[in-house]
Amino acid sequence: MSASELAAAVGRALDVDGEAFHERAREEATQLKEEIRSGTFDNTEAIVGMELELYAVDDQTDALRRVPRQLLELIGFEKELGLHNAEMQTSPQPLNSHGLAAQRDELKASLLPAQQRVRSEGIRLVSDGMWTVPPNGETARDYLCDCVEEGGVRIGTNMTDAVRYHTMANTEYPSAFELDAPHVSLTAETVMPEALITSIQPHYQIPHAPDLPEYFSYALRIAAPVLALGVNSPFFPPDLYDDAPEEEIVADAHMENRIGVFESVLNPPEGDSTPPKVCFPPDFDSVEDAIDDIVEDDTIVPRQLQSGTRFDDDFVHFRHKHGSYWRWVRPVFEGPTRSAANARIEFRPLPAQPTVDDAIAFEALVAGLMESLVRFEHPIQSQDWETAKANFYAATRDGLEADIEWVTADGATTTATDEIYGELFEHAREGLEGRGLSTEAAHEYLRPLRERVDRRMTPARWKHDYVRKRVAENVPLAEAIWGMQNAYISQQEETLLEGTFLDWLDK
Question: Which of 35, 204, 330, 506 could cross-link to 40 by cystine, CB 3.0-4.6 Å?
């Protein structure tokens, strides 16, 4: 699509009557609630799924690479925000031993030929929380900020040509389009800085849709300790840092900058009264409250939509609103057919992980906890929401070293890391066993994460230790960060499909 065609499409999107769109979404939400009350969205099985995002680098230099659109289609991956991004989704599977194995095998089965195909173009796909090496001959600042104006419409030069991404830069919603992190400052004219980050997103389908608020409250309270295990983006591309002492930049680094990037780019700037869209969500008293929260969320890009052939196309405007309902944990209501209609929880705070087996370990952990904590009515549900939120942002800053508050099975409050994770892993194991996994299989899925706790080592800490040591040896910060990135990519080449992050630590 040419710049003029894209600008014209954005112009048409901006002309949509937002109030009429919003009213249609409200009407569809009323119908959705009736379907949920009638049992349409209930399922006998708990179902799991996974979204996996990657970015492309030059096979020789580790520099970020734009992926030709035809190549992306050829390998069967979906477009994401940046031209360097690729995304894949697994087919939903029942939560049992075969379903989890199918999730893992599907990821590997798709990634193996994709890596082989892009390698012929001198490209490698990387699973990582944030890229740090800009394209050859460019700075990260220029790559993220480059845009043109066509017919009064701002077009991000390095953004994929999906109309919704470019429309977001031209609406009245006051996204800040800036980075706000220790010693980092950047302001752009589009949402492109969000393309710094990549994620995994485990999904868990609720057996009985009206019970979603109970499951959701548990998901919010495990968000902090689960994120603390998975942190993987302590450093930005070096040219984005302000002029500050390098030792200070390293010392002040957050273990998981992905959270701050998403929030500071897409939310309104500080002081604006517009409610933020990217945030830690509230508890819900009922499934109807969850639906209403989606409906009343600000719509950045309303659209004129026609109902299609899917069952959930009866709620097409509601589903479109949900697409920009950016909560760190969010409810989802959809299904291509009436029999496949489902209510699920999408767990969104996790960055992309070093290997496929690490990603599947998080899927197993989240699903196992959803099964067990609800079944045993674990008292963590009584934890004050403000505490759960504070825990979450503490995890972004400090990872496993965060001062996270937990309520144990006997109702006691603790901040002891070993006690918190000992209980989490035990409940996850019980949840997986309750779905038919053997004790040995459940342990095997969770082992990569359990050993992260035992060794007090996350991917972010591994990166941070590397850079901290090099800077202490008087290596320039940029060289230290790029050396870390080279080491990460080299380790991943051997372990992405056959191994875990633990293999990096045993060398």
Answer: 35
